[in-house]
């Protein structure tokens, strides 16, 4: 029974004073023990925890629907709020394991509320697997630091309370507490690298050296400390290189040694909450994008983003279906949801985007993609081609097709948060304020 109280105390210690918790819940033994432990802390130890469990349906296994039902039943039994979220896994990008992970964390990101922390059930043996996978890839200290117990996630934190607990102790807890869980048969498929390590390599290493996983955890922690020190030493310089749009200065990077430049670029990736790039990715980014010919429009795909260059700066640009042929009618009385995840338009009270109100005979539509030979905007004396306007306002090419354009009938009134045409100029007596929540 001692290991039960030890496990509960470890969870309690790692979550600290946080009370609103989103739990990644697959129904497997690890996440089931984590959720059960949190329920025990709430019900037996009377911690004021507000628990929500989220099951991610990857669509990769025929039993996934049944697993979702099992998870929901567990949550009903334990009085835990439950979410089931289906995701799309694109196995062509980075392999099926990485793609599933990316899809899973995007879903976590979507559902995590401002006051919640996310907790997941990785444990000490998972840490050893992650370390060995990073070693196989030839990773440096950042990759070998593997998984931290606590990390920034979605303006809050991701905490892994079981990271110091072995798989053996987790299974002992489950058996002792008579907890039922689902078994993912794909975990026995050694075609996947992680399963190969779990099934064939780690048992041999543990048989030879029983405390191998603990030693790996110490090594990962030391690598993490080295990275934390580099973060501290490079923070002020990185802040100078990065602007409000989170783009990074190519000219300043070019003045650094290759080693330092690569370290800065990796921290730029981290600021965007992206997985760490390989050495090959960093090299391609620098050679093919940063150093491309001056008149080129270079881009490099990185999972769901492209890295692009504009005016000697590098940008992360989400890949979306361009909405250029889209025309949306807007009544103004209700918020308007924009396509391809571009956000929402609504009437507001902020004065950063003020236009005249439409007349009774004017229909309001939202369009995308502007090409107009002669365009007069407020603050400019002469008409310009729309391309010139975009350039003068320093709007990158990819952004120009994603900014909502407000039309009254067929007259352009404004590009939201960017410019207002003379036809859309407001007066003291006739004005509305537009808010765009991206």
From TrEMBL:
Keyword presence, Ribonucleoprotein? no
Query: Localized where?
Result: Cytoplasm
User: In the Enzyme Commission scheme, what number(s) does this protein have?
Assistant: 6.3.4.19
Q: Which UniProt keywords apply?
A: ATP-binding, Cytoplasm, Ligase, Nucleotide-binding, tRNA processing
Lysidine-tRNA(Ile) synthetase C-terminal domain residues are: 364-436
**Class in the EC hierarchy, top level:** ligase
A GO cellular component annotated for this chain's UniProt record is: cytoplasm
Which Pfam families does the record match to this protein?
ATP_bind_3, TilS, TilS_C
Q: Which CDD domains match?
A: TilS_N
Superkingdom of this protein's organism: Bacteria
Q: Which family does it belong to?
A: Belongs to the tRNA(Ile)-lysidine synthase family.
Q: What is this protein called?
A: tRNA(Ile)-lysidine synthase
